[in-house]
Every structure is written in C-alpha cells, then in structure tokens.
Amino acid sequence: MPATIQDLCQAIAQNTSDDAFAPALQPAQWEVLGSYLQPFELAPTQKLIDEGAHDRTLFFVESGSLSVHRLSSKGEVQIAIVNAGSVVGEGAFFSRQPRSASVTASATCRMWRLTPLRFSEMGNRQPGIALELAMALGLVMSRRLQHKGRRVAVT
Q1: Is 154 exposed, middle or buried (0-12, 13-18, 19+ CB in 10 A)?
Q2: Percent of the chain beyond pLDDT 90?
Q3: Mean pLDDT of 27-45
Q4: Is residue 82 part of a domain?
Q5: pLDDT tens per residue across span 68-113
C-alpha cells in the first residue's frame, strides 16, 4: 500500500510525548507538505543517521521506533528512543553542524524525509507552511534540550 501523508498526520496526532512534533496545519496544508516529503522504509537495525555526518535532512517517523545512540569511551550508549509521530534530525537541520548522534531502526519503520533543498523550495513557494514546520521543529528541539538526559538526543 502506498504511503500517504494522512498516515503520517495520524501518527503525529497520536503522539503524546512531551517532545511531540505538533505543527498547527490544516488538512490541505498537510497535503502540500506531503508533496515536499519522500516516504521510505527502514528495516530493523538499519542505520538512518551516522554520528558526525554532515547532513541536514529531517526525518519524520510514521510507524516503528528508532534508537538514538552516541559513541563514548564505553562504546555505543543508547540515549533515547524515538517513536511514531516524532521527528529526528532537527539539530543538524538548524545548526548546520555534524550530526550529534547516530540513529538506527529498532523495528521496521515507515519514514518520511525532507531534504534542505526541498525545505528551501517550500519556503519560497509555501512560506506559511515552512514557517509553521520550523516553529514546530524548534519546539521539539527546545523540549529535548530542557531535559538533561535528552540534550544529546538532538540529532
């Protein structure tokens, strides 16, 4: 079955975590946003983000869960789990710095990606949607940074 933006929208609406991604978009705006996103799947244990990588792509989780981990003197340390309806990649998206953690699929995941180029196009053509997306991402990042244990989970 092909992925639809409504599936992602439903997952986001059901996410009740304290760092939930919750843009205030109308159904027609979700459809527009969906036209800038690319759906894909991750298999269990498949790596999505490599710590230290220079990439600003945002990833939205429709289903499944992701493990966020960092390298330390003791090896890889899991620092967070990201579930359906959330987002990863927000740290590098805003900072333009290398990724601060690695992210791997804990289970089969249905994902959506937004590249910096597509976000820029959306900003030019749909500035209201791009602004709302940026504000919602900023809130996620702010809430993650408020929790000492999650600060390093901003990817």
Answers
A1: buried
A2: 77
A3: 96
A4: yes
A5: 998 888 888 888 899 999 999 999 999 999 999 999 999 999 999 9
Which residues neighbour 91 within 8 Å (Cβ) at sequence distance 6 or greater? 97, 99, 100, 141, 154, 155
Contact 84, 16 (CB under 8 A): no
Task: Return the bridge partners of 49, or none.
Answer: 103
Please name the residue ranges forming H helices in 1-155: 5-14, 27-34, 90-95, 116-125, 127-146
User: Residue 112: which domain range?
Assistant: 5-148
The model's pTM: 0.91
In a domain, 155, yes or no: no
CATH number at residue 66: 2.60.120.10
Longest dimension (CA), the chain: 48
Is 153 inside a domain boundary?
no
Q: How many domains does the chain have?
A: 1
Residue 154 lies in a domain: no
